[in-house]
Amino acid sequence: MTKTVLLIEDEPNIIVAISFILQRAGWRVQTHSDGANAMEAVARERPDVIVLDVMLPGRSGFDILADIRAQDTEHDVPVLMLTAKGQTKDRARAEALGVTQFMTKPFANQAVLEAVEALVGQKA
Amino acid sequence: MSLNSLIAVSLAYVALLFVVAFAAERAAARGQLRVLRSPLVYTLSLSIYCTAWTFYGAVGSAARSGLEFITIYLGPTLVFVGWWWLLRKIVRVGKSQRVTSIADLISARYGKSNGLAVLVTVLAVVGTTPYISLQLQSVTLSFTVFADGANRDAEAIGLYVAVGLALFTIIFGTRSLDANERHDGIVSAIAVEAVVKLAALLAVGGFVVWGVASGPQDILERVAASPMADWTSSSGRWVGLTMLSAAAIICLPRMFQVMVVEASDERHLAIASWAFPLYLLGMSIFVVPIAVVGLEILPEGSNPDLFVLTIPLALGEDTLAMLAFLGGFSSATSMVIVASVALATMLSNHIVMPLWLATKAEGATVSGDVRYVVLVARRASIAAVLGMGYIYYRLNGGNEALASIGLIAFAGLAQVLPALLGGLFWRGATRIGAAAGISIGFAIWGYTMLLPVFQGTLLPVALFAEGPFEIAWLRPEGLFGINETDPLLSTLILSIGANTIAFCALSLLSFPTPLERWQGAQFINVFDRSTAPRGWKGGTAGAEELLIMAQRILGTEQAQSLFQTEASAQGKSGYLPDPTPDFIETLERELSGSVGTATSHAMVGQLTDGATVSVDDLLAVADEAAQIMEYSARLETQSEELTRTARKLREANTKLTELSIQKDAFLSQVSHELRTPMTSIRAFSEILMIDDLASEERQNYSGIIRDESQRLTRLLDDLLDLSVLENGQVVLNEATLSLHEVLERAVNASSSLTKGKLTIIRDPDREDVSLHTDADRLSQVFINLITNACKYCDAEAPELAIKVRRTKTRVTVDFIDNGGGIPARSRGVIFEKFARLTDHASAGSAGLGLAICREVMGRLGGNIDYLPGQKGAAFRVTLPRAQANAPSVAAQ
Question: Which of A35, B317, B438, B551 could covalently link to B559 via disulfide, CB atoms 3.0 to 4.6 Å apart?
Fold first, then answer.
């Protein structure tokens, strides 16, 4: 069965890139580019993995992560966080909020793919 | 003997005095002061007490009233022998306060009040002028007696004498400016005169006793046979006159002059205390024999005041008569000279100079010509004093017995005594009390004693017989019904009594000023001050008490270590040290470092001697307290400064911290803005490496890489531009140009972006404004605003209106689009760096545009604001106009 990745990201070119990489590996990719109603997308799509940007219009990735961990307790969906800020204090903050994996932009395409697959494998 | 030879001898004698005075000044200038300032000269100078009144008048008084004349010698003798310490105190005070006259002394004691000085000066002048005229009269009288009783040229002689004395006094009395400096010439001359008059009187006396009579035994028999033996005197009058002359020796301005001002050494007073009474004894010893013999051998009705002169003349002893004449002449002149110096000093210091200073414009007073003015004032005063004496003589000459005018003068000047003695011994004496006492005494004396002198000359006799307005009890000589049998004594008691009562009462009622208190303490404690160096004789203090006090002041540790050191030095290690004088002094020194010397002395004094704290101690403590307060005020200022500095540092630190936070946020944002396009570039370059990519995809992805690279470049350009603008390093290429041109350029430059998307509405006529500015920078701002409108205007058919408006000094260019505008809450941040408001990152810029616009407009001397109240987003660019000769205003 095809696994679903929910990509929450606001940069159109990055959405195109990540979608291309994951779809090519056989993933179903849903995208959402607004921070404000990201939780609706999470509830609607029930993704197997979430790829989350930090700097989002409306709401930051950290807030969204906190909501995911607070509401979606039984699923315990893996979250891969991608950030362009890449400072250590952001990583610490994300870990404290229960992030599954943390990566900084720019990234190697292969690394993102491997990370997403590993997250699903972990869960299975 | 002819008048001519008498005049010749007189002139020669005067010439001698000039020579003596001149020689003395020369010697003093050379520093040969041993003789000039010896106790002998000092004592002889005191002899000015014996004036012509004493020289001639004592014999007259003896002939008329028996032994009463002795009181005149008795008073000063008692003062010099018995009240020697009082004189010493006056001299010490006079020297330590550098007083120049008795008026100055009184003024100095009572808070340096010039009013009081004027009062005393007036009193002295009024009291002394008759006395001076008396001397002139005695000289002219003696001249006329010599010249066979012919009264020719008497007035002329008086004038010559007055002028001569004025010259002598001016020459030797005002050579130096300092009134406090000794007049060696004058003092030497009067010392010579003192010798001459004593010698003359002794010679006449000796001649009378051994030449006329046959020795002392014979004289005593003659006295017993004469009417003098029957004269009695009331004891009250004796006491009164003795006290009056005792007061006179202290209060007479001329006596104060020689005794205090001219004193060179306080110790001379010790010798004078017996030598001066001896001199007075010599002056008085032959008075009775001369009087008795005069009454006996001279015809009835002869003036007994001139017996000293007339006896030798009657007996043909011309040389002796000449000596007697010179003695009388000496008595008169020495008194006049010193009195006029003393009065002139008072007049010039307390009346002429203050008046002169008052008439001068304020400020320009302390110039070089003041010295000259002082000299002129003093010389004029001398001339005035002698002139007044002469005028008084012309008005009143010859109608009074010599002695009575002398006593009147004594009584007048004695009015100063209560204030003087009170000032020296009574702390509570005040200026108001002194002024009241002297004024009242002066008034009563003037009314009851001085006015009668003018009876029949200046004033009608009726005034004295019936009283003013015919009120009997207001008659000057019977005021309030006082005893008419002895008017002198009763008016003396009345005036001095009222004086003293007023002085005491008002002193008690009034409150002294601080300066009066201070001066009072200086006067009363004059000896404490100049003797007795501070030291501790040894102690009754417990070492424990000292330790407790020391701990309180020095702190426990320091005090204990001080005591331990001392204890081990005393060989008593481990115990408290003995309070030896040395240790107490050491302790006092240590304490004074903390609380000041006076306080420390007072505190240690309390513990060691149980000494009460004196006013001086308190004054010294107050001084120190003032210093400490000043010091602490300085410290306070310093601490305020430190607080200010600390606050500034805190502010600077806060600012730096803020800047550091801003810098971190900026770096974080820059990092984000750089990483985002780089992420796309890397991702797509990796994707492009995949072989089985459709060429359409490949082209598409390459385009993304190109766009993102351009975005990166733009970002870097903007960052550098902003950095240059913010650091003020930007170089402006200013030129005068038309606003229309700049707008045209901006619209053209952004046309590639706006084409087909944004309609720009302009009014070219209004754009014809001349500007002096940097065209590139200004069009950069315009391009930014146009492209922003293009990117963010959310209207279906986006429009941008560019409206130009001008005032006298400025031009405004408004950019208003027809979109939804910027929400009010965001308007505050739109000009901040990275303030991108849209929800879409697609704008392709990092949010630096408006920040750059703001910087640029600042450099161009204008500004850019969001313009609220329009339908869409609206920005207003304001520029200064070219004509306002405004070059670049490079201010933020």
Answer: B551
